[in-house]
Every structure is written in structure tokens, then in C-alpha cells.
């Protein structure tokens, strides 16, 4: 049996974007930002990312990488764990097992 070569990267047609968690994370960021009275542009500046990208994250159009999540948390002066807890609360509750 011939040895298969290792193919780097994702298989064609796959994606890492999942709408539900992206929307929940964006809503959590927006909730924390407005709670603190910070403008979106200010948060983008504090986080070191483009304002337009911050808008896409808050609308759930982009799922940020771990490094961006950490930058956003730093910009909000909170922990990434706090943002994840807010995100989990916004996700739909799991369905009960039959």
C-alpha cells in the first residue's frame, strides 16, 4: 500500500465560520462595550484592529482568531474568559437528550 502524502491546509470547500457562535460572540462584545460606554471606533483603536473589522465582528460576520479575542478583551479591560462566558450565555441552550 503506497504511503499517502500529507496535504497541508483545509480540504477544498471547508470553512471555519459558524454563524451561531460568531453572532453570539459579537453580541457579547457589543454588550460589554456599550455597558462600559465605549464607542466602537475607540474599542477598535484600543484593541489595535481596524474599525470596519470590529463592526464585522460585532455583527457576527467574522469569527475572530484567538489573538483577536485576546486583543478585544484587553481593549475592554476584561478577561477573554469573561467574553467567552457572555458568549456562552447568548448561545442557544443545548437540546435535551432523548
Produce a short descriptive summary:
The chain has 98 residues and is mostly helical. It has helices at residues 19-36, 40-47, 51-58, 66-75, 80-90. Helix 1 (19-36) crosses helix 5, helix 2 (40-47) packs across helix 3 and helix 2 crosses helix 4 (66-75).
Any overview of this molecule?
The chain is mainly α and 98 residues long. It has a single domain, classed as 434 Repressor (Amino-terminal Domain), CATH 1.10.260. It is 56% helix and 0% strand. The termini are far apart. The model has no long low-confidence stretch (mean pLDDT 87).
Write out key terms for the chains shown.
98 residues, mainly alpha, 434 Repressor (Amino-terminal Domain), globular
Which helices and strands, and how do they pair?
Elements: H1 19-36, H2 40-47, H3 51-58, H4 66-75, H5 80-90
Helix pairs in contact: 1-5, 2-3, 2-4
* Approximate helicity band: 55-70%
Number of helices: 5
Order of helices and strands: HHHHH
- How many structural domains? 1
